[in-house]
Amino acid sequence: MEQAQVYENVDLQIIKLLFNSDGSDYKVYAVRILNPHPELKMTLTQEITVTGDMGYYNRRAIITADLVYDDADSLRYRKPSYKVARLHFGLPKEPRRQWQLIDTLLVHQPTVLRRLHDYFADDAPILTIFSKDEIKTARIPGVGPATVQKIATAIRGKLEVAVLANHWGKALSSMTYEKIWLAYKDAELAMQHVDANPYILMQVAQLDFKKVDAFAKSRGVAPNDSHRLAAGLQYIFRTAVLTQGLTYITITWFKEQAATLLGVSTDDLTMFADPKQALAYGFLLNEQYDLVTSCDMFATEGSVARIMAVAQKTAEPLIKPAELDEKLDKFLDRHQLVINDQQRAAFQNVNQHGLSVLNGSAGTGKTWLTNLLVHFFNAQAKGKSVLLAPTGRAAKVLARYTHEPAATIHAYLHLLPGEELDRFDAEADWETFGDARLIIVDESSMLTTPLAYTVLKNVNFKKAHVLFVGDVFQLPPIGPGNFLKDCLADDHVAATTLTRVYRQDSQSGVLALANRIRDRLALPFGPDDDRYVSGNVALYNQRDAGRVFDAGIKAYQEALAKHGHQPDSQLLIVNKNIGATGRLRFNAELQALVNPARAGEPEYVSSYVDPVTNQKHHLRLNDRVMILKNDKHVALVDPKTWERRAVLGENGLQKTDEFGTKRWRETIMANGDTGVVAHIDPKRHFLVVQVGNQYCYYSFGSVPRALTLAYAITVHKAQGGQADTVIAIVNGADRMLNAQSFYTALTRTQSQFIFFGDFRVLLARTKIYPIDSRHDLLGSLLSGQLTVDTFSRFTFEQILTWLDHQRHQGIQPRAAITAAKPEAATQPFAVRYTEQLDILNQVVEKVTKLPVKKATGEG
DNA sequence: CAAACTGG
């Protein structure tokens, strides 16, 4: 085999970042070569691209690398491309290169730079000088001690990253070294902590378990090392249990999976034999039913169950129940409205119960009724309602419909994704929901139990009631729990289910088919039928994926020819992004057919090649696009001149309203909104997307993260949207398909539903209801089958106390970072475990002395 | 495998 030529010690200056892959360190930079090698291929301006696992570098940064020529990438970027074989850390030795580095370091302080050049000789090793302690006492004319200190610290950072890189070698990426140094700001401390427990890197450098595990293995950590087991068991529970929607699993299954996935014998998994040890690892065992769950998940589900019980006990009616009917009738008279009995029941539920649910499928008037509820209780209950939703798009729709402010749960509660337990800038005296009397959460089918918990734990049920609105037959959340279903199954939760359909013609085929699925009846056709056509539904049996694809394209073109390029006129719904009938392939093909490139017309072309499709992204005038970001702050463009004209919206908190409730800026552009490309300016590198009647500015640089083609979309993204003609596609090997996903696609239809796919697959998969197979403990806790105090060997108070203790001790890596250096260079988990056990025993002893609350019998 | 959330 031909040996690749390595070009060593090439100094490169970063020009720009061309491609940045999320979730990995793979980057593509355009760079300038500072010390040209005679054999290197390069452009006239000495430019090349470099690719590989690198840290993030700012423009003008200088790096030193060994390079290997990369023929394939050279075709992609129209420049000779090189792979980074090795990065050299630390300070360059030659004075000339040291000066180059300090030039880039001080690019924004030209005066300081000039004074350094004046004071030091050109052949002085400037970085080496600044890395010595003596620099503190040096007197450089015109450069103050604070500035000297700043430069020295920056250089020390570079040196310390080099120390880390030297210590661990190629086992970790340069990005990781930078993150570790930033976390500890002390190389020695970092090495001690990471060597003692490599798995701490999962938090420190946001690496996943598999990456850290490979690193730990290369460092000689044994497969049955306690740190490894602790991290590995949590990882398996998160990836194999919680993402399936489950919140617990059988001990037997978990033990077997853990042994297989971690490559250890079941004898090594000692936590399963000892409830106390399991607790130290963060798990709870229920030996009676052979169940195991994580402490965190149990605390969440248990807290939700408790809060729901409290809600029912402490809530007082918003207005006097005796007056409700009279006031409601007056309200309806004044607005000339009529409601049915189901809808009236919803008013009574909301008025009387701390927690209630409004359930109903598409077209039953949920949104219409929600609007009435908001305005009725706003007028009658002396305190404005707070409107929330799990997604930006749902919040936007709710705000538009009610003409009241609505926000995402995260935006309203000041939560950062992934850190929902704490507000990022909590004000001590801020009562979350102010004097609000009613909190409405729309699209509640998308709520995981942890997200429902973040809402519920902030509610004072003496003041306010909560209403969850949703359609339990839509897609369940991607994440643990089945919150809406559990609410509906619980006798104590006041639920209204709307069944009368107003939107669809009751004779329509779509409605009939949707009802069959809801009622769990067999679909009205066989696996070998050619087609099923009834009313506005047409399903075609097609087994070959290639033909399914072609049929979908053809149906879309026909719908387009009939109805034109109107928003919401036609929509192609798929189950997956990638694959032969995936979203990306459909969009590429539909764009080429529906909106092909025309000579002389401006185009947006991405500067990189999409690693999934192996193509560059193109956007042209009139392309249908979907917006992927929630924005409360949007630059608008004048559609006559295409000049930027105004900025709509502001970030952050609005003023307190007359009821003392904090109000929030609305989401102007939401993830999931669709629009049309209205203008492209290739010279000034921006394009304009028309969404509704607004023209929004997107710089070319923001396009990859902000926009995607929207001819075809996944069924998840289609939730909450409607189209006249819906074309649904099912691939023979579609594991995403189930009754709820098909139901969701079906109920997006306003006039015509067309389906292409294998009837055998459709018939088999629509027998699967995710709602049935998602097991959680919340349902059992609400029904009284389980109680929080008797699920495991520990009472709920003991579990919460233990979690609280763990959060404040060095077990959590974030706390470990701020903690003092460990006494010994390595501190095995076994040693720590006995300490933990002592503390655990103290905790258990202490809390058992507290008055024990019984589950029942207090009232 | 599917997706949601934010701030600077």
UniProtKB/TrEMBL annotation:
Keywords: ATP-binding, Endonuclease, Hydrolase, Nuclease, Nucleotide-binding
Transmembrane segments: none
Pfam families in the record: AAA_30, HHH_RecD2, UvrD_C_2
GO CC entries: exodeoxyribonuclease V complex
GO molecular function term, any single one: endonuclease activity
Protein name: AAA family ATPase
Listed GO biological process terms: DNA recombination
Protein species of origin: Lacticaseibacillus chiayiensis
Domain UvrD-like helicase C-terminal: 709-752
Keyword Nucleotide-binding: yes
Domain ATP-dependent RecD2 DNA helicase-like helix-hairpin-helix: 173-248
